Amino acid sequence: MSMSLNAPITVSALYHATDRTAVALGLARYTARRRGELGLSVARAAELSGLAVSQWCALEAGWVPEEHHVIRSIAAALEVSWTDLDMLALFAGCAQQS
Fold first, then answer.
1. Crossing angle of helices 82-97/17-24, nearest 10°?
2. HEC states along the chain?
3. Topology of domain 16-97, per CATH?
4. In Å, what is the CA distance from 6 to each residue of 11, 14, 59?
5. Domain edges within the chain
6. Are 23 and 70 in contact (CB under 8 A)?
7. 55-93: per-residue pLDDT in tens?
């Protein structure tokens, strides 16, 4: 693959579509894995975070919340740093848009 020196470098030019899919689903996969590590059911994780069960299911299916208070609530339920989860959500959201 050749790129012109004058062409702008974009995120989508830096990695393949399958890589974008993996990044886009990173939040979903991490959330499901961490919930499992904690031994939480979907219903319990949703309850701890203040989300509806349908929202938690959407999260694990690839929905990326944009509101910081939602990210903080999810992070609290998963017992992880909200800043780390927020960064993962940012990457996932960007990958979904490209």
1. 140
2. CCCCCCCCCCHHHHCCHHHHHHHHCHHHHHHHHHHHHCCCCHHHHHHHHCCCHHHHHHHHHCCCCCCHHHHHHHHHHHCCCHHHHHHHHHHHHHHHHC
3. 434 Repressor (Amino-terminal Domain) (1.10.260)
4. 16, 15, 39
5. 16-97
6. no
7. 999 999 999 999 999 999 999 999 999 999 999 999 888
